């Protein structure tokens, strides 16, 4: 992400404890598009995220146009952990995740070689209750974690281990965009992913990634990973027990480990999730809202909800892991 010019200093943001910075759409209405784009991107650089309220987005085609206008390109998702509906190239539904379950804080595709530098969210239908897309400052989380734990993850990195099968979780086709074994193998080799085909056609993968990175614009050290979210201990207890009973510890759809392969115990996962919660900001969705999130500096999650919810997602500003220190 390059640093934009920042005519955003004159914009009147609303700040409330425990809530993300909020920009009323009237503050930018009538701006030329280039000025509007620079203003919003400047606010994201400065604050890590900004919620634009009253923007009036009402149809997927409108959302696509705004996403493309604000991002330095939209990327196609690979290695998805849950299925999405595709609205247009690079414009997706929120991940299919049970409405009654919490989606832990994470940085989108932080386990992949290519990931978005900017996340774009647009709410078309707000749920009756809950369903907030919370955000958390990753530098604050990093500083609050025990130094010994951070040192270990910084030295070793972390592992994501996945098992794909036809019964549960994302399929091979969902994650890789194809079920052709040769194409899947080529992708894995190109992206430093170990793999092994299992009896019955399933696929096992393992990848090793960094847990702490330096932001390419601000220079801040950031806790950038999905160690907590994709760990088995964040599954619903009855779901985890069922999966262990049926597939065994090496057959879970996903789990995370220390960089040397050691299991991560529940106490560590609970510590990570409670630390995220201390830094989480929430603002209930309203139809027409637009939320921009710096995916490196700011983690995001999703609260349980009731009623219909339609939030569209764009994966903007594609970056490679090699771009980060």
UniProtKB/TrEMBL annotation:
Q: Which cofactors, by name?
A: Fe(2+)
Q: Where is the TauD/TfdA-like domain?
A: 35-312
What is a single Pfam family found in this protein's UniProt entry?
TauD
Keywords, comma-separated and alphabetical:
Antibiotic biosynthesis, Dioxygenase, Iron, Oxidoreductase
The protein's GO terms of the molecular function aspect are:
dioxygenase activity
Matching entries from InterPro entries are given as: AlphaKG_dependent_hydroxylases (IPR050411), TauD-like_sf (IPR042098), TauD/TfdA-like (IPR003819)
Task: Name the PANTHER family on file.
Answer: GAMMA-BUTYROBETAINE HYDROXYLASE-RELATED, TAUD_TFDA-LIKE DOMAIN-CONTAINING PROTEIN
Protein's UniProt name: Alpha-ketoglutarate-dependent taurine dioxygenase
């Amino acid at each position: 992400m390059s640093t934009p010019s920042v005519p955003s200093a004159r914009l009147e943001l609303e700040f409330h404890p425990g809530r993300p910075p909020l920009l009323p759409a009237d503050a930018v209405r009538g701006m030329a598009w280039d000025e509007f784009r620079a203003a919003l991107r400047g606010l994201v650089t400065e604050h890590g995220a900004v919620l634009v309220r009253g923007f009036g987005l009402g149809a997927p085609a409108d959302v696509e146009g705004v996403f493309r206008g604000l991002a330095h390109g939209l990327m196609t998702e690979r290695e998805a952990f849950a299925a999405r509906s595709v609205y247009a190239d690079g414009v997706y539904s929120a991940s299919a995740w049970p409405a009654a379950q919490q989606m832990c804080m994470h940085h989108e595709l932080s386990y992949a070689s290519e990931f978005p530098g900017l996340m774009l969210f647009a709410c078309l239908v707000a749920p009756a209750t809950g369903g907030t897309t919370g955000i958390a400052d990753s530098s604050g989380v990093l500083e609050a974690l025990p130094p010994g734990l951070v040192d270990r993850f910084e030295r070793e990195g972390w592992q994501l281990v996945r098992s794909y099968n036809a019964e549960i979780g994302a399929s091979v086709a969902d994650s890789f965009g194809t079920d052709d074994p040769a194409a899947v193998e080529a992708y894995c080799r190109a992206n430093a992913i170990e793999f092994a085909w299992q009896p019955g056609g399933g696929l096992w993968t393992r990848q090793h990634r960094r847990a702490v990175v330096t932001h390419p614009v601000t220079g801040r050290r950031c806790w950038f990973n999905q160690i907590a979210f994709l760990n088995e201990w964040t599954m619903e207890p009855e779901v985890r027990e069922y999966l262990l009973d049926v597939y065994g510890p090496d057959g879970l759809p996903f789990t995370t480990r220390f960089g040397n392969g050691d299991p991560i115990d529940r106490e560590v996962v609970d510590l990570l999730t409670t630390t995220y919660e201390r830094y989480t900001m929430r603002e209930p969705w309203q139809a027409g809202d637009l939320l921009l999130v710096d995916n490196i500096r700011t983690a995001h999650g999703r609260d349980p909800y009731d009623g219909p919810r339609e939030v569209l997602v764009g994966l903007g500003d594609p970056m490679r892991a090699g771009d980060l220190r």
